Amino acid sequence: MFKKSALLIGMMFVPFATSAAEVPITGTVESRCIIQTDAAGTFGNPNAYTLTTTAADGGDPAVVRYDITLADAYYAEITPPTQFSSAPNLPDVVTFTGDVSVKTVSDASGMGTYETDKLEVGDTDRYDLTATGSTWFAIESTATMGGSKAFAGGTYTAVAEAVCIAK
Amino acid sequence: MALPVQAHEMVPTYPRLEQSHLDNILKTTMKMFNKRADVEYYEIGVFDKDFNPVPFVSAYNVFKLEYLGHVTFDIYIRASDRNRAVYVCSKSKLRKDSDTKTAISSKICSKFKDD
After folding, report:
1. Pairing mode, if any, of strands B41-47 and A50-52?
2. Assembly ipTM
């Protein structure tokens, strides 16, 4: 009788012992810069000779987010489009203007001066990413056809460049 | 409203060049993760401090990386270029037939760590 009870108790514990096996999940956190494209942006067409990402004209600015896990280790360099990467035939020269600005930050105290401290070199804006966290940048672009000629019907694509450079 | 997240990342930030199995050839290993659904191809390059290209060898200069895919790749440079080589960069390659009206090319540059 005693042997049967001992066996029964022993069998009851076997499943529990098996289900308690540990499955380790390991990971390593490395310092990194991640570029997230939150919105690709779209052009509005407020008149025949202008394409613009301005919201009031029916466009949407492109938005990129930089996630930084190591302070004072990266620069962000963002360049609005300077030409179309694909477009129908263009009847005249197109002039591009653009602007980059800080839209939102995850740490207002550490990142509050990003916009005022930025360095503009040609078409490119360079930001010194001195704090860890996320920064959203809005990229505005306007393309104006020369001679006030009309943009032909079709799809126009222009590419903005977002670069993260280790210091 | 939740927006789809499209991310490009490359590590390490400060790779170290080490002696490879070949004389006078240095090697480093990089890892990339593609979370950009709109990008399938990335181009890698090695540059000096002014972003002039420095000769290097890798399995592919342009490689395909599926959405949510990881890749580990080796970069080889000549030992004589050690002091010239400052950055190793990966750049997203966008398709010309993309139907978005503006697009974003992302580029991440790591910096070789001084010995």
Report:
1. unpaired
2. 0.85
Tokens standing for A134?
Answer: 């996320």
**Residue A14 banded pLDDT, cuts 50, 70, 90:** low
Could you tell me if residue B5 is inside a domain? no
Contacts of A41 in chain B (CB under 8 A): 100-102, 104
Rounded-to-10 torsion of CA A120, A126, A128, A129 = 140
Provide the pLDDT confidence category of residue A31 given band limits of 50, 70 and 90.
Answer: confident
Number of structural domains in chain B: 1
Q: Do A37 and B3 touch (CB under 8 A)?
A: no
CA torsion sign, B27 to A75 to B105 to A120? Answer: negative
Query: Is residue B51 a part of any domain in this protein?
Result: yes
- In terms of pTM, does the model score above 0.90? no
List chain B residues with CB under 8 Å of A53: 102
The answer for A 145-164 residues in CB contact with B (under 8 A) is 155-164
* Confidence label for A96 from pLDDT (cuts 50, 70 and 90): very high
| Residue B82 in domain | yes
* Interface mutation vs chain A, best among B67, B104, B105, B106, most A CBs within 10 Å: B104
